[in-house]
Write a structure and sequence with these properties.
The protein is of the alpha+beta class. Helix content is 41%, strand content 13%. A 3-stranded antiparallel beta sheet has the order 5-6-7, with helices on one face.
Length: 204
């Protein structure tokens, strides 16, 4: 048994089978106590019964895999927390990462941080609130007078980035992934229109 749940029924050297590595990592995220202790957001995540048998997962993966793409369950399924043919797709890493929330203190909304001058803790910059979005491996930062302005900038920048990704990859990726990205755009736009703080675009 792999992590107490997976049954390997493949042939040959597992180290030479790229799908075995993906399958094993999927099981680790769901059923390894050490992994769940380090990444508690995965607590409660499961693998469907069908995919606990390696050959079933391998067959699905062979039909859907694209070189360099990542297995993702969140863009399509939101809060369902299950790896399955219905909830998963292989996606480019840039799309896999674009809906992940960066860790943020409870004091500031998503995408916003507060900056001070080094060595001058009592001096406040004219525009101390930084809006930051990771795009193509680079952090794009803008500075504002208030956290509300910075968060609005993050919301609009995130919408623009998601639209760019849809335009770039729509012909290559599962239509369910496109729809998942469109759902994030709708949520962000709804929050902007209603002057609301966006709490997450990861699990929806």
């Amino acid at each position: 048994m792999v992590y107490g749940h997976g049954i390997y029924d493949g042939v040959g050297n597992t180290s030479l089978n790229k799908f075995y590595g993906i399958w094993k990592e999927m099981l680790r995220r769901c059923y390894s106590s050490k992994y769940l202790e380090k990444f508690p957001s995965y607590v409660g995540t499961t693998v469907c019964e069908e995919w606990k048998l390696f050959s079933n997962f391998e067959k699905w993966a062979e039909e859907h895999y694209k070189d360099g793409y990542h297995l993702d369950k969140d863009i399509i399924s939101g809060d369902l927390k299950i790896y399955s043919p219905v909830t998963c797709a292989f996606v480019p890493p840039i799309i896999n990462h674009c809906i992940k929330n960066r860790e943020s203190s409870s004091e500031y909304p998503l995408g916003v941080s507060y900056h001070k001058l080094s060595g001058k803790p009592d001096y406040e910059l004219p525009k101390p609130y930084c809006s930051s979005i990771s795009k193509n491996g680079k952090d794009i930062k803008k500075y504002f007078s208030t956290s509300e302005e910075a968060h609005l900038s993050w919301q609009t920048s995130k919408i623009e980035f998601l639209q760019e990704l849809i335009k770039q990859y729509s012909a290559e990726i599962d239509v369910r992934v496109v729809n998942g990205l469109l759902r994030r755009i709708e949520i962000l736009q709804h929050d902007i229109d209603n002057n609301k703080i966006t709490e997450t675009i990861n699990k929806i």
